[in-house]
Structure formats: C-alpha cells, structure tokens
Design a protein that fits this description.
Blueprint: H1 2-28, H2 34-47, H3 58-91, H4 99-113, H5 116-127, H6 132-138, H7 143-166
Helix pairs in contact: 1-2, 1-3, 1-5, 2-3, 4-7, 5-7, 6-7
Length: about 170
C-alpha cells in the first residue's frame, strides 16, 4: 500500500517538477530558501496525497500547500526579518554585491509591495508560465480578474522602478 502511494506521488510529481520549482523560486522571494519551501510542501503533499481527487489537480494542490506554508512562515518571521535585514544592510560587503543580484533583490522588494493577489498572479504568469485560465482556477477568480491583476501588477512594478530612480542614495523601497 505504501509502495503504491509512493509510486503514485512520484509519477505525479515528475510531470510538474520544473513548474513547481520555478513557482517556489519566485514565490519564496527571499523569505525562505526555495528548496525548504519545496521540501516542506512535498512532504505535506505526500502525507495528504489521498485527499487529491483528480490527478490533473496535483500542481494546484502543491501550490496551495506552498502558499499556506509561506503565509505561516511570513507571519512567524515578520519581526525577525526586519531585524535581520537591518543587520545584513549594516554588514554587507559592497564588493560582494553584483549588479544582477541587486536588481533581483530590488525586484523581489518591489513585488513585496504589490497586493498578494497581484504578486501571485505575476509570479505565476511571468515566471512560472501558467496560463491565465490556470491562474484563474488557482486563485478562484475569473479570467478577467486575473488579467486585471496582471495589468495592475505590471503598473505597480513600473511605478516602483520609476520611484527607485527618484530615491536618494541609501533609501530603500
């Protein structure tokens, strides 16, 4: 019985691994290592695989689990993260900073200012490669609502990037 469960899980996961990894990489946004998010999500998914009604819903099943894990993690780490960021900013070695890493960090920071639904829609569409229809199913909304979230999210990111140019040196988003 356990062997069948394991085989079923591995078969389902093999088909969604790449998309799930891209989702976790983008969604973790520096809050936690994406590998930890993936591993914890997979562990819970394996434990609850019997609750999965349709095999075609496996990826949304994984994403739902990872969303809840991230929300719980963020809730627990909110105060700690602010203190950690202050420490890191005060001790960062400028020579270790690569322009690309700064841009990625800025993008993650800008994404964090977007409302949750917009941020998630952008990550799912632009980074993970989900279709608008798939995102609508994941977010329990209409396709037009997803399109609106994508449009508003892009405008919000553009405004954040524009504001970056206006910020004084030393200021952060």
């Amino acid at each position: 019985m356990h062997q069948q469960k394991q085989e079923r899980f591995l078969k389902l996961y093999k088909g969604v691994h790449d998309r799930f990894e891209r989702f976790c990489r983008a969604r973790a946004c520096g809050d936690m290592p994406y590998e930890d998010l993936m591993n914890e999500s997979l562990l819970i998914a394996f434990q609850k695989i019997d609750q999965l009604e349709k095999e075609s819903s496996f990826l949304p099943f994984l994403i739902g689990i990872s969303r809840r894990l991230l929300a719980n993690h963020r809730r627990k780490q909110k105060a700690v993260a602010a203190a950690d960021e202050t420490i890191l900013l005060n001790h960062a070695d400028p020579e270790d900073q690569v322009n690309k890493q700064l841009n990625v960090a800025f993008l993650h920071k800008a994404l964090a200012f977007l409302p949750e639904a917009q941020r998630e829609a952008l990550i799912l569409f632009e980074i993970t490669g989900f279709s608008i229809k798939e995102i609508a199913q994941l977010q329990d909304s209409s396709e037009s609502a997803v399109k609106q979230r994508l449009s508003r999210g892009r405008k919000g990111l553009a405004a954040a990037i524009k504001n970056k140019l206006l910020l004084k040196t030393g200021d952060t988003l």
